[in-house]
Structure formats: C-alpha cells, structure tokens
Amino acid sequence: MGYLFRFFLINSIRCRRTQWLAFLGLLPVMFAGLILLLKPVLLEHGTDAASLFPEVSVLLYIHFLLPLAAIFNGTAVISSEVEDGTLPYLLTRPLPRRTIVLSKLLAGAAVTAVILTLSIALTYSVMKLGSGIGGLITGAGDYLGMVCILCLGLAAYMPLFSFTGGVLNRPVLAGLIFAFGWEPAISLIPANIRYLSISHYLHLLYSSLFGDSSIGKSAGEAILSIFYRPEEIPAYYAILILILISATFTFLSASLLRVREYRLDKE
Amino acid sequence: MNIEVKGLSKWYGQVIGVNDLEFTIGPGVTGFLGPNGAGKTTLLRLLTGQLKPSRGGISLGGNPVWNNHSLMRDIGYCPENDSFWDYLTGFQFVTSTLRMHGLSSGQAEEKALAAISEMKMEQYRDRKIGGYSKGMRQRIKVAQAVAHRPEVLFLDEPLNGMDPLGRKSVIELIRDSGESGKTVIVSSHVLHEVEEMTDRILLINHGRVLAEGNIYQIRKLIDNHPLRVTIICDRVDIMTSRLLEFEDVSSVQLNREANQITVQTRAPDEFHRRLPRIALDNNIKVKSIWSPDENLEAVFDYLVR
User: Fold this and answer.
1) Total structural domains in chain B?
2) What ipTM describes this predicted complex?
3) Which residues form the domain of B291?
4) Smallest CA–CA separation between A78 and chain B, in Å?
5) What is the pTM of this model?
C-alpha cells in the first residue's frame, strides 16, 4: 500500500484538477485581502478584519472550498481511472482491490488537505496582518480549530464522493447538487432532516469552537433560527457522526471494485 | 498454466458480449482471431478478472479468476486501449507497474530496463509517454505486460499501429514465450498477423467461438469460400473469355467503360496463380487487382453461413 499511496500522491499532484484546486484556494486569500482594504469601514462599525476570520473561513471554506475540493478529488478516485482507461493496469496487479481505492482516496485526501491548510493559512495571515506577530500567535487557536474542522469535513466528504464517483455516471453533478443544493436547502427546513447533511455537523463544531454566528449561516437559516431552534447535539456527537460517515463511505467505496466491474469509456 | 473456460457468457443489459464459451487453453501461443467487435476484448478482460462473468466460470491453473488478486502475480496483460498515465516516462511507467507487483525499487528498475531493451525502446525510455508515437506506446504497453516474466500473457491487438521494428520484436517475444512453455494469448483481427505468431487459433465472432484448432485447417475453410476478385485491365473482352474457360470461375461481371471485371472464383489460390500467365500470354496490361471479400468480416460471414 505504501508504494501505491506514493504513486497516487504524485499522480494527484500532477493532475490538472489539483492545479485548478490550488487556484481556487487563492480565492479566499484574495477575499481576505479585500476585507483588509475595507479596514476603515469595518472600524467605523466597531470591528476589524482580524476578528472576522472565523466567519469568513466558515463561509468560504466550510460552505465553498471544502465541498468543492472534495467533489473534484473524491469523485475522481475511481471514475478518473475508468475515464482515462488506466484501470486495467491496476486491476491486473496482485493488489487487493480495496487497497487500490484506499490508497487513491488517501492520496487525494492528503493533497486536498494540504491545499486547504495552505489556503486557510494564507487567508489567516492576510486577515491578521494588522495585528502584528502578537495577533498572529494569539489567534493561532482559531486557525488550528478551523483546520481541524476542515480535516474532519474532508474525511467525511471525500469517501462519500468517492463512493458516488464509483456508482453514478455523472458524479460531479450529483456532488454539486448535494453540496450546493441539498445541504443549504435542508438547513432551511425546521426539522431533524438537517442531520442528513455533513455541513450541519461541521457547523455544530464551528459553533462549539467559535460561538454562534449569523454570518456562518445562510440568510434564511439566520431568520429561521429566530423562530425555531432545534435541539442540538453536543460537539463530540458531531465528531463521532462525521467519523461514522467517513468509515461507512470509505468501506463502501473500497468495496466497489470487488463487487462492481467497469467498462472503459474508450472501449 | 491451463486456462479453463466453462459455459462462459457475459452480457451488458440486452447486449451480449460473449455467449456460452467453452474451451481449454494450455501452454504455447493461442491466437484469438475475429473482426472488430467480435468480443475478443471482452473475453480477454474476463480472462484477466477485470470483468465478472454473467454466467459460467474461468479458472487459471484451477483457481477462479474473478476477485483473485494473488493470481495476478502470474498474469501479464497488454490492453488494447491506448491509455497511460501520460506524465510518466516509459521507464517510470514500466517501473511503476513492477513496483505494484511488490518488487523493490532496485529489482523493478532492473526488470524494467530488461523489458524496455527487449522492446528496443532504450533510447526513448526517458521520454514522456505523452510524447510517444503510436508504435512506441504499443511497445511500452507490451513491455509492462512482460516485465515481471508472467506465466500467462494476454496481449490484446499488440501489433496495432506498430512499426516494422516493433512488430518484429513483439512477434519474436511472443514466439519465444510460447516456446518456453508460457501460456500466451494474442488477439487480432488480422489473419496473417496471427499466422506469424502461432498456428493455434480460436475464431471468434459475435461473442461465439466459430472454430478452434490448427490455423491451416481454418485457412482451408477460408480458402474454400467463393471469393470475388476485381481486375482493372485493358482488353477486358479477351480477359473475360479466358477466365470463363476455368471451372472454378462461377461468374464474371464486365464493366467495359471502367475496363473492370469482377470474377467470382471457388479456388482463389489457384485463380491468383493462373492470372499472371493469362495476362502474359494474351498481352493484357493489368492495372490493379483487389478482392472486396478479402477482409475477415467476409470470411466470417461465409463461415457462419
């Protein structure tokens, strides 16, 4: 598994998807720069760029970059080998089929995690520019907390999208619908259906780390929360559920090559 | 190592890939011969455990193939499709596939170099596969299939698009592997290609095995089938009358405007031997000769009928 992981790691670094993802990772940094430029306006409202880091990061990372990165790298775990026609080279080696999927999933997750961590580190640094070295160090807890939430989110999203990439014909579209349609939509429904969303658990973790924030929620969600406040589960439950989602979909996607066969697109 | 196929069928929804196949293949070279779309690739992908049989079974040395990754240690497979991790060099590609066989870095590099040199690819080994010609890509594909010295080798249309030097290397390699007691299966849609590698073939069409055995027996079957031959020459009337003198010629169609004659013969080999003599004796200038039936599809149509 060690060699295969390294092989897929290099493969992931070299692929165009990762280059696009690295570019997308710069968008939150640019957004942070924009906020920094608005410093005088923020000061008028009694706040500054540095204190907005948690809100900005939940909006740009948990709701945007994390699911997007997981969709592109997760769905590609099996489907890219099928689409590129390279699957036969892997299936005709003395490698357990689970190992093939697990190695690629891990390599994809590692590359995605590095991009997200670097991106959020840059965003954090830009937003704390005005606070000096002291501000950077005192706020490091916020940064590390956010990185932990993103890693947990990635651990849940990647196997889920890896599984959909192995079973659906248009996994990217399905992933986009799930992350940017289903998840925001069900957060507006005042019932326990919101537990069927990964971002909900990430939100719970965010709230427990940084306190509640209306910026972290969509506008509709914020309005709804005035009238209806569902009974929330504690943070460690959220962590457990995310780990459970991760384990379940890791197992399912790793089992796919054992039970499912693939016709190559170029056949 | 023997390959045993029992009652093997594979279908995709309503489409039948292979249908109720039953055969045993032992050491030596065996050719899977059939036109494009005959089911050769599906059969090879079934034999290498990439596809799951819909019905029936396949075993290699008595072990089932599907979901049996340890069996892959003895298998080498060269796919038909022209797909690679294009950013790798030829050497990195072969080394990577060897590392996936569990070989150490040193062993993998040593074996990769040997396989690459066998395919006469030494001077291109450090070039990226993305920049390879079709023939070079074919050769590097074969190199990765043979590099770990497998007991059973499956080569799907290995000579497709290959240059003469590459063809020579691959044909030699296939023959040598067969002679050394390995089980080699080569698929092709070109009869003379298979003839160069082996005399033992399985004729496949529409997912079925039409004939199995020695290539000369099958050649005889093929040679007996009525063949149309089109000739463009001057003095078409004389040529037509001379051709009609022979018993094997069952019909002649004459197109004076185009100076073209289409003959149907039941003895194609004899016909081709006789034709130059007729032209010489009657001072006829032959511009071109071709046979619209001389493709494998036509031969298969004949065999099926």
Assistant:
1) 2
2) 0.81
3) 224-304
4) 14
5) 0.81
